[in-house]
Every structure is written in structure tokens, then in C-alpha cells.
Design a protein that fits this description.
With about 325 residues, this protein is α/β, with parallel strands linked by helices. Helix content is about 30%, strand content about 25%.
């Protein structure tokens, strides 16, 4: 038996309830994982509310976790009992104390990255690797706009882009978050609740605009992000924390030969060789000090609903992780 968080119907954080579930022996190509830390992401919120109807109900949400290999099914190679692994999956099931996992998606963790830190940053850092090296290749001298620059992804994105030599402009909502964004490498920060970011970005860039705008906010910032693109600029929308983006006229992109892209990290992680290369780059970025982070605020697994409520409230204690057993 394992403890798992079951979602039986869409709704608020109270829909996340702990249950006991049977756990079969690992099948061919599977690892049995005793999970030690579980990531909490806005993706999980979208699944819980029904904005993303990608988890068949009833089901166990969660897309990333860290744990220890306790058993292996037939045909598994390259792993041993006791290995520390992390994973990101579009197949869900991470909100559990133990689970069976396809060995093909498991990533061995370096000793330098602890379990709780890995659960906090693995998906976020893989997403950032995708954003700065694959969706748009950030280079020295470019100007980059990062919305929500103090968030879990935003601060890693600002760090990596600044480390590559880009001038990073970040937006954030509170004085404390502005400080976090500045410490993450933003050359300029904009308090978007006090000032319209569009004229501020244009002023900071001498009217030229930015080479790339990274926008995880969605509805509230999408139009403005288009307006601040430099000629040939790219808008990368990778989230919608303020709500989905309404339809827009594609002819608007002709104003500067702009492009808009909506990447999904799972598509990039689907190829095994690319997934290993992305993980290698992430682990190297932490080893070299290009990326730094602290483990997220921990909640007991049974309190997943409280973690969701805090995440949706934009709590300054974010990011969050879930921990099976005692904290």
C-alpha cells in the first residue's frame, strides 16, 4: 500500500484528498520508487481546477518527484536498488509516497543536489533549459524580458539568461519580489502593479524593444509583451497564471516580423537523448554556479491542498514541495 493524493472531481484545493492505494510489483521496464520529495507546480493547479483536462479522473496528480529505487521489474538496466533518481512525467501519479515508474524517464541525480532541492527545481530548470537553449537561443548582448521574474521558473530563467550575457528586464509585483528578481540577475526590474511595463520596457531599451519576451502570465500580459518586441522578436508564452489568452489576429505579428511560440516541456523531454542532454546541462549549470536555488517550503503529502492554496495566493514562501511521512 502507498499513500496518494486522489483527485476525483475538479474544483478547489479541498478536492485533493489522501487515500491508501494498492501498489503492484514493478512490471517490465519499471522501477519501484520510494518517494522522498514531490514538486508542486502551477500545472498541478490547472489539472485540479479542470483547466487542463489531461488527467483521467479519478487520478493521482503530480508531474515530478524525487526518490530512491527500492525494486526493479524485468528488463531494467542501468539502475540499482538504492539509486537516487528524479523524474518529470506527463503521465502524472507523482503525489504519492511510492509508485512504479518507467525506468526510461528516470534521471540519476548527482550527489551535489539534495532530494528536496531536486524536487523543487528539476522541472523548472529543465523548462528554463528549453527556453534559453532550444525555443530561443539566448546570446550575449540580447535584451530579454522575463515576467514573474521572482517566481520559481522566473528567477532561474533570469539567472541563466544573465549568465549567458543577456540584459534581463524583469517584472514582479511586490518590493520583496523585485529584490528577488534583482538578485537573480535582472539588470532592471519593473513593479508591474504600479507602472505599465510597456512604456517602461520601451524606455529602458531606447524604443527598440526586447529580442525575446518570456511570458508565463498569459492573459494579463500577452498584448503588452507583443508591443515591446524588437523587430524579429519572439514572444514565448509558457504559462497562463492570469488566465488563458483570447484569440488574436495573426496579422499583428507582421508589424515587426514577430513570432509567437507556445512550448510544452514534455514534448522536448519525450526524446530520450534530448532529455538526457537537457538534464546534463541543468546539472552542469548548478555545479558551475550558473544556477542557484534553495529547497522549497515543505508540506506533508496529506496537506497537498494547503500547498495548492498557498501557490495560488502567490505566497512569498513559494516554491513548495510535498514530503511523504514526517517533515
Amino acid at each position: 500500500m502507498a499513500e496518494a493524493i486522489m483527485l476525483r472531481e475538479y474544483g478547489g484545493p479541498e478536492r485533493l484528498r489522501a487515500e491508501k492505494v494498492d501498489l503492484a510489483p514493478p512490471g517490465p521496464g519499471e522501477l519501484r520508487i520510494r518517494q522522498t520529495a514531490i514538486g508542486v507546480n502551477f500545472h498541478d493547479v490547472y489539472v485540479r481546477t479542470g483547466l487542463y483536462k489531461t488527467l483521467p479522473l479519478p487520478g493521482i496528480p503530480g508531474i515530478e518527484a524525487v526518490g530512491v529505487v527500492e525494486d526493479m521489474g524485468p528488463d531494467v538496466t542501468g539502475f540499482s536498488v538504492g539509486d537516487r533518481i528524479g523524474y518529470v512525467t506527463g503521465g502524472y501519479g507523482a503525489y504519492a509516497s511510492a509508485r512504479n515508474l518507467p525506468a526510461a524517464i528516470a534521471l540519476k541525480l548527482p550527489d551535489a543536489i539534495g532530494d528536496r532541492l531536486a524536487a523543487t527545481v528539476l522541472l523548472k530548470a529543465l523548462t528554463v533549459e528549453m527556453l534559453v537553449r532550444r525555443v530561443h537561443r539566448v546570446e550575449a548582448g540580447q535584451t530579454v524580458l522575463v515576467h514573474a521574474a521572482a517566481g520559481g521558473v522566473g528567477r532561474l530563467l533570469a539567472q541563466w539568461a544573465a549568465g549567458l550575457g543577456a540584459v534581463v528586464i524583469g517584472t514582479a509585483g511586490t518590493p520583496d519580489k523585485l529584490r528577488i528578481a534583482k538578485e537573480a540577475g535582472c539588470a532592471h526590474v519593473i513593479p508591474y502593479r504600479e507602472r505599465d511595463f510597456v512604456p517602461e520596457v520601451l524606455r529602458l531599451t531606447g524604443g527598440r524593444g526586447v529580442d525575446v519576451a518570456y511570458d508565463s502570465v498569459g492573459r494579463d500580459t500577452f498584448d503588452g509583451s507583443l508591443k515591446v518586441l524588437a523587430p524579429l522578436g519572439r514572444l514565448v508564452n509558457f504559462g497562463q497564471s492570469s488566465g488563458p489568452i483570447p484569440p488574436f489576429e495573426i496579422s499583428r505579428l507582421a508589424a515587426g516580423s514577430f513570432s509567437v511560440v507556445r512550448p510544452i516541456v514534455f514534448h522536448y523531454l519525450a526524446d530520450a537523448e534530448r532529455r538526457r542532454d537537457m538534464a546534463k546541462n541543468v546539472f552542469a549549470a548548478f555545479a558551475d554556479g550558473l544556477l542557484t536555488a534553495e529547497a522549497g517550503t515543505a508540506y506533508p503529502l496529506a496537506d497537498a491542498g494547503q500547498a495548492h492554496a498557498a501557490l495560488e495566493a502567490r505566497s512569498d514562501r513559494a516554491p513548495f514541495i510535498l514530503v511523504p511521512g514526517d517533515l
